[in-house]
Amino acid sequence: MKSYIKRGVIFLAASLVVFCVLFVLIQTDVINAYYSQILMVICINIILALSTNLIINYTGQLTLGHSAFMAIGAYASAFIQMNTGLPFFLSLLCGSVVAAVFGFLIGLPTLRLKGDYLAITTLGFCQIVVVAIQNIDALGGAQGLAGIPPKTTFAWVFFSMIATIAILYNIVHANQGRAMISVREDEIAAEAMGIDTTRYKIMSFTTGAFFAGYAGGLYAFLMMFIDPNSFNFLKSIDFVIYVVLGGTGGFVGCIASTSILTLLPEVLRFLGDLRMVIYPLLLIVIMILRVKNIRVTSFLRRKSGAAKPKERGEDHAAA
Amino acid sequence: MPLLDIENITIKFGGLTAVSDFSISMEENDLFGLIGPNGAGKTTVFNMLTGVYAPTSGKIVFNGESIQGIQPHQITKKKISRTFQNIRLMKNLSVMDNIKVSYAYQAHYSLVSSIFRLPSYFRQEEEIEKKSLDLLKIFGLLELKNEKACNLPYGQQRRLEIARALATQPKLLLLDEPAAGMNPQETQNLMDLIQWIRREFKIAILLIEHDMKLVMGVCENIVVLDYGKIIAQGPPDEIKTNKKVIEAYLGEEAADA
Ligand SMILES: Nc1ncnc2c1ncn2[C@@H]1O[C@H](COP(=O)(O)OP(=O)(O)OP(=O)(O)O)[C@@H](O)[C@H]1O
Ligand SMILES: [Mg+2]
């Protein structure tokens, strides 16, 4: 318990420092409006990637429809806020809860499917959500929903990201997380050890949907305009790429890969059309390096001199 | 009232009757052996007992409750636990976490207390930690607690699997060929371990094993299965001399010897 509190305090202090530095840089225009926008998108993407990570890496369920929950959260929170004038945070929460309810309802039947079947079903669900929104006039239909008030600030996205990291970390390093990991490792053995695998799959899926919905809300109030097509399954694939590049389990890898891959297309913008060639090429190179197990995290660990002989297995050890 | 009462369970896979009319009855703290040639249906009996398969017909009563057809995780909660013929550890988890998974269903703190790290989280996690360490110590795996399960030598993996099954606090422990792949010394240690577990934890054990020395050495009652049917049942001495058994099973070994 003591070591947990110690680590918690260090984590909070570190995030405060990072926040202050970035905040000052933004205020003094060292990071211009364009890049501060990208910074906020990175934070939002990290929330999405971590929630995908919970489902794919920790629970071992391949979902290709995570952007659907982002869309549901985005539309629900924007719609609620614009029609009722509910405070920002409450509308974000409403959006997340709606996404979580959908996650639960979709998870209930589909999580009985395994591997490829689950992937295809979630992908189908994602497209259904997109098409459904396109046909709901109250949500702006295919034209998209405009006029969302700009309420998302850097402080909001940053601390939402920190809260997401803390909450997901706490889940993963607890009984529930252990159960989810055991589902990934060996479902039959997990059942034999008394773990209700269906229950934990649904718990993971619903939690993931909740955070995706929350991130969707942040996104809507940042962009002030959302259209259904930007949430199609290609967006879900982005999250899968972040997660796969991040490596099994760990949070640090996932956060690093998301930041890099969100930033990369912007940095490569000077290349013009070549960008569309270079970006995928870089992806392939990074993927090969990953397979050779040159991990960002292990590199950092070695650098930081934290020479604890940590096994990968310890990533999941309880706090 | 017996602890376990199996009455005429039969299971068919398509046209194949893997087990037919299987009946046994075990008291608390009994140690039974289940033997038979390859493909006789031994593992299938375990799978029916643990809810992996539902019997096509028949009745399984455990602890006074009918348990056939309920899900594996529910059966574990009713205090039957097992190991697997082809070891099924959580390969990428540490030895310690493998044990902790078994305590997961016994912990009763909610997702909310995990998220906000409420006192109930710390209290129960501490307890789980302590119990897991105790168990690892008993099984001589304490030094290896941070090792990934897949890095353990084969014999240790078998031990860990038994430890993990015990962590669910069963009243009936099902061991599926625990000595497979062990050398004679390891098998001897395993025999001692099984007898010690039975005494210490006061549980009933049903053991599938091909190693005759082990089975005859520790079990007080042996059930012999051939082509899904029980062909003999009794104490080791009787089984050793049973004609049908020698024909069906020991015959191969007797011929070898
Ligand atoms: N799910 C299944 N579907 C079809 N047939 C099965 C299934 N499970 C087991 N069988 C068949 O049932 C029979 C008994 O298998 P079982 O695994 O119980 O044998 P066993 O006695 O454990 O053998 P071994 O000593 O080789 O482990 C075999 O013929 C097997 O092919
Ligand atoms: Mg078998």
Provide a descriptive summary of the structure in words:
- Chain A: Keywords: Cell membrane, Membrane, Transmembrane, Transmembrane helix.
- Chain A: GO terms for molecular function: branched-chain amino acid transmembrane transporter activity.
- The complex is a heterodimer of chains A (319) and B (257).
- Helices cover 73% and strands 1% of the residues of chain A.
- Chain A is mostly helical.
- Chain A has a domain at 32-234.
- Chain A starts with a helix and ends in a 16-residue tail after the last helix.
- Residues 294-319 of chain A have low confidence and may be disordered.
- In chain B, helix 3 (95-103) packs across helix 5.
- The radius of gyration of chain B is 19 Å and the shape is globular.
- Chain B has ten helices and ten strands.
- Chain B has helices at 42-49, 72-77, 95-103, 111-115, 119-138, 154-167, 184-201, 212-218, 236-241, 243-256, and strands at residues 4-13, 16-26, 31-35, 57-62, 65-66, 80-82, 172-176, 204-208, 221-226, 229-234.
- By secondary structure, chain B is α/β, with parallel strands linked by helices.
- The A-B interface holds A 1, 4, 167, 170-171, 174-179, 181-182, 185-186, 188-197, 203, 248, 311-314, 316-319 and B 50, 52, 71-73, 76-77, 81-82, 84, 88-94, 96-97, 100-102, 104-107, 109, 111, 114-117, 121-122, 124-126, 128-129, 146-149, 164-165, 167-168.
- Bound molecules: adenosine-5'-triphosphate (ATP) and magnesium ion (MG).
- The site of magnesium ion has 3 residues of chain B, from helix 1.
Briefly summarize what is shown.
Chain A is mainly alpha-helical. Chain A is built from 13 helices and 2 strands.
* Top-tier CATH class of the largest domain in chain B: Alpha Beta
Contiguous helical run count of chain A? 13
Average pLDDT score of chain A? 88
Residue-averaged pLDDT of chain B? 92
Please, what is the oligomeric state?
heterodimer
CATH architecture of the largest domain in chain B: 3-Layer(aba) Sandwich
Bound compounds, each kind once, are: adenosine-5'-triphosphate, magnesium ion
Could you give a short account of the major beta sheet of chain A? 2 strands, antiparallel
| Low-confidence residue ranges of chain B | none
Distance between the termini of chain A: 8 Å
Secondary structure tally, helices of chain B: 10
Strand residues, percent of chain A = under 5%
Choose one word for the global shape of chain A: globular
Q: What is the CA-based Rg of chain B, rounded? A: 19 Å
Structural class of chain A: mainly alpha
- Proportion of residues in helical segments of chain A: over 70%
Keywords (chain A): Cell membrane, Membrane, Transmembrane, Transmembrane helix
Membrane topology (chain A): Multi-pass membrane protein
Transmembrane segments (chain A): 9-28, 34-56, 63-82, 88-108, 115-133, 153-172, 202-227, 239-264, 276-294
Pfam families (chain A): BPD_transp_2
